[in-house]
Design goal:
The complex is a heterodimer of chains A (about 140) and B (about 425).
Chain A lengths: L2 E9 L4 H11 L4 E8 L3 E8 L2 H10 L4 E12 L4 H11 L4 E8 L5 E8 L2 H10 L7 H5 L2
Antiparallel strand pairs in A: 1-3, 1-4, 2-3, 4-6, 5-6
Chain B lengths: L6 H4 L3 H22 L1 H9 L21 H6 L13 E7 L7 E6 H17 L7 E4 L8 H12 L2 E3 L6 H10 L4 E4 L1 H13 L10 E5 L5 H11 L2 E7 L6 E6 L6 E3 L4 E6 L13 E7 L10 E7 L1 E2 L11 E2 L4 E2 L4 E3 L2 E3 L1 H10 L6 E8 L2 E9 L9 H19 L4 E5 L14 E3 L5
Parallel strand pairs in B: 3-4, 3-5, 5-6, 6-7, 18-21, 19-20
Antiparallel strand pairs in B: 1-2, 7-8, 8-9, 9-14, 10-11, 11-12, 12-15, 13-14, 16-17, 18-19
The chains are: A alpha+beta (about 140), B alpha/beta (about 425).
Chain lengths: ~140, ~425
């Protein structure tokens, strides 16, 4: 099970992020997670939202360049060593991480990690062998 | 004291120069007509026969030739001698990426070297000098031209080529270079570096010959102050021969055109009509001594003014001003010819929209070229590695086409202004003219 991450091209200029969040606000889109990869000239904004279809439509209308990527959202125990446990499993099975970021929700005991890997199927398989379940888009929307 | 390489030519009477031009023009028109089918067609289309050209007064009857013709005739279409007589080629970029190739016989090289030797001696050079050539060697004419000229003068020649500033300065100090030949921007950079390192005392330069790109009077002062030299301008283009078509003398007031080899005209770039002396227009050259590549009425696209007043140096050849602009959209960046159409070709080949902008700036006296390209969905990815690798692919393709590095700036779609008529593709922030 994967969740849909929306990645958006933004120029590295003042006000670009604010313009984007204003757009989401106008359409009542709630963000679950956000991360930015930046270069001196531009950034790639990665967001997980409650309604990815609606967000994609809005971004298309606003002429943003964006892509939708299935990524893994993994609940981890919000305690020391929680992340390490999962990374060890991925490492031992030779799964390479492109990038990762974390977010927490109203549920205080759990944190979530987003993993972008090249092979989602394989990653899900090894995680489930260790009793770790990834969550799907619907579950995420209701968090 | 003024030095001349060929005083009997450089200081010849105007009558003598005219006599040479008349005789050589007639001969060269016939040579081109008889040996170059492309030229014969051009002249036939205009209804001009070689016998119609009896002196320089008939020059205006000849058709113009342009860079587009050179591109069309690439590679051998304008060669006027059998290949067995050709000993060298030089090359420069053309308008849509197709290069322009110029051919030389041994005789052509000798005359080109003579022109450069005149420039070196006009800058005070003698066989006692150490001439440091930091122009690029290779297809670019800068290095080979000044190298040949320096040999003719009998100076010790340092074929440094461009780049590797540490080594340049090392040789300059160790071998006591006295005359520096390079682009003005590189001279300014060398000057800055030498000052930063506190090496002024170890530098024995007395003069510099700088060309291949536009430079201002302020830049000349800056270079002269930093390097404690006299800085001389030199002009040329591969199509006509290379550097040394015209050069500056001690008066530093315009460049003497070597009129025994090249006839200069100034035309209205829109109508093609010849303009009287002193008026600003496009510079046109007719080669009258070249064997392999005898271009006639070649439109340089450089805008300048001719000055026929006597010069205090004693030379009698007409002087041209520094180019004051271009009549086409060609840019000269780091001494390299760059056409927007070349950049467009690369973008289209790589699947980018043709909406782009070129920004040229000068930082620390060095040119910077930036190409702004609008991001496309195809190029976009959620990972930086992927976007960066596509960006690098584009940078490499531009470098292969242009020969120089261009920074690629990815911008948001529709962020580059679209204008109704002619798009504003070039922003030149250098204030060169």
């Amino acid at each position: 099970m994967t969740v849909k991450q929306i990645s958006v091209f933004v120029e590295n200029k003042p006000g670009q992020l604010a313009e984007f969040t204003k757009l989401l606000r106008q359409h009542n889109i709630d963000m679950r997670a956000l991360s930015i990869a930046e270069t001196p000239d531009f950034g790639i904004l990665r967001v997980i939202v409650d309604d990815s279809y609606k967000t994609a439509c809005i971004l298309k209308d606003a002429e943003y360049i964006f892509s939708i990527t299935p990524v893994l959202a993994v609940p981890i125990e919000d305690e020391a060593g929680g992340l390490d446990k999962i990374l060890t499993i991925l490492a031992e099975n030779g799964i390479n991480l492109e990038y990762t970021y974390a977010f927490i929700t109203r549920n205080k005991d759990l944190a979530y990690m987003i993993f972008r890997v090249t092979d989602n199927e394989k990653a899900m398989e090894v995680l489930s062998q260790h009793g770790i379940k990834t969550i799907c888009q619907d579950q995420l929307s209701s968090l | 004291m003024e030095h001349y390489y060929q005083p009997e030519i450089e200081c010849a009477s105007r009558e003598q120069i005219k006599a040479w031009q008349d005789e050589r023009l007639v001969k060269n028109v016939k040579h081109a007509y008889d040996n170059v089918p492309y030229y014969r067609n051009l002249m036939d289309q205009k209804g001009v026969k070689p016998e119609d050209i009896r002196s320089t007064a008939d020059l205006h009857k000849l058709p113009f030739i342009t860079k587009e013709d050179l591109r069309e005739a690439y590679p051998y279409g304008l060669l006027a001698v059998p290949l067995k007589d050709v000993v060298r080629i030089q090359s420069t970029s053309g308008t849509t990426g197709r290069r322009v190739v110029a051919f030389y016989t041994q005789h052509d090289l000798d005359l080109w070297d003579d022109c450069c030797a005149r420039a070196i001696m006009a800058a005070g050079g003698t066989n006692e000098d150490v001439v440091h050539v930091s122009y690029g060697y290779g297809l670019f004419t800068g290095g080979p031209g000044l190298n040949g000229g320096s040999h003719k003068v009998g100076s010790m020649t340092l074929p440094m080529s461009s780049g590797n500033t540490d080594r340049q300065i090392q040789f300059m100090c160790d071998l006591q270079s006295t005359i520096l030949c390079c682009t003005p921007s590189y001279a300014a950079y060398l000057g800055e570096t030498i000052c930063e390192r506190g090496l002024q005392d170890q530098i024995k330069l007395k003069a510099g010959i700088f060309g291949a790109e536009a430079w201002s009077e302020e830049m000349r002062q800056d270079i002269q102050n930093k390097l404690h030299i006299k800085a001389y301008d030199i002009y040329g283009l591969t199509e006509i021969s290379g550097p040394g078509v015209a050069f500056e003398c001690s008066a530093q007031g315009g460049m003497h055109i070597n009129e025994d080899h090249f006839i200069a005209e100034i035309i209205d770039p829109n109508t093609g009509e010849v303009l009287p002396d002193g008026e600003k227009g496009e510079l046109v050259f007719t080669c009258i001594t070249k064997e392999a590549f005898p271009l006639m009425r070649y439109r340089t696209r450089d805008i300048c003014v001719l000055n026929r007043e006597p010069c205090s140096c004693g030379r009698t050849h007409v002087r041209m001003s520094k180019p004051m602009g271009r009549s086409d959209d060609m840019l000269i960046v780091k001494g390299v010819n760059v056409f927007p159409s070349q950049i467009e070709t690369v973008l289209l080949n790589k699947g980018y929209p043709a909406n782009y902008q070129i920004i040229v700036s000068r930082e620390h006296n060095s040119d910077k070229l930036e190409v702004q390209v609008e991001m496309t969905p195809e190029m976009f990815s959620d990972t930086l590695t992927e976007v960066s690798s596509k960006e690098k692919e584009l940078i490499d393709a531009l470098k292969a086409m242009l020969g120089i590095y261009a920074k690629v700036q990815l911008v948001a779609p529709k962020s580059i202004a679209r204008s109704e008529g002619k798009a504003v593709r070039i922003i030149d922030n250098r204030n060169l003219y």
